[in-house]
Amino acid sequence: MTEHPKTWFLTGASRGFGAQWARAVLESGDRLAATARDAASLKPLVDTYGDQVLPLGFDVSDATAVRHAVAEAEAHFGGLDVLVNNAGHMLVGAVEEATDEQIRSQMDTNYFGALWTTRAVLPGMRARGGGRILQVSSLGGVVAYPALGIYHASKWALEAVSQSLAAEVAPFGIHVTLIEPIVFQTGLTANSPQTSPDDTYAHARKALYGGAAHIVPGDLEASGRALLELADTPEPPLRVLFGVGGLEELREEYARRLDGWEQWDRLSRTAHGSAAS
Prior knowledge:
Rossmann fold, oxidoreductase, SDR_oxidoreductase, NAD(P)-bd_dom_sf
């Protein structure tokens, strides 16, 4: 899929990864349906790139608004080639600290928002015989740290549904890739709602921030180049890390999981009963 121009639909295009990736897409000569909660925040893109950009303002957690926005973008451009589900926020706090409303909002944006947009583009992509769906997950979509449990839950859910979806839509020429960034200075935490810290869980925050102290943030501009390369790759991966340091952590994580399952295999067989071999 290397033809140009392609037409992209990018959520969360007003800041962080989204703002950088929007510029990368447009500089490449492609067309972009750029979305944000407030369409006015996308005016700089329109001022610079004109008719290459369709600015759309809506909340990704509103399934009806999502369907209308996708339909408007398809009518405007004649179809969509690449969906990037980037909109999201990161709730920092222990599981007990988070309010019911914060938990719901985290899932509504990071998981359901991506799910609604994905479902909305699928009929058009199937009819056109192909497409790319790029889901912005995280290293936190495959590992879990203290004081990020609710955020991790939203990304783990996105990972699961995307893996199933990839197998379901492959026969239609649609590729699904989970992008798993490590650490980039996107302003994600500063622009996200946060819990009220409780000293009871001070140890959890200490463990979270202490473990990240050695990580060197990646380059946002370089991530845009990687995104374009990914969109042009004929056979893209199901998962790809953006940044360095994650692969080593994942090796340790999966080694611990396998070790745990093996250590408790006796109990697993007990649970199975007399039919165990």
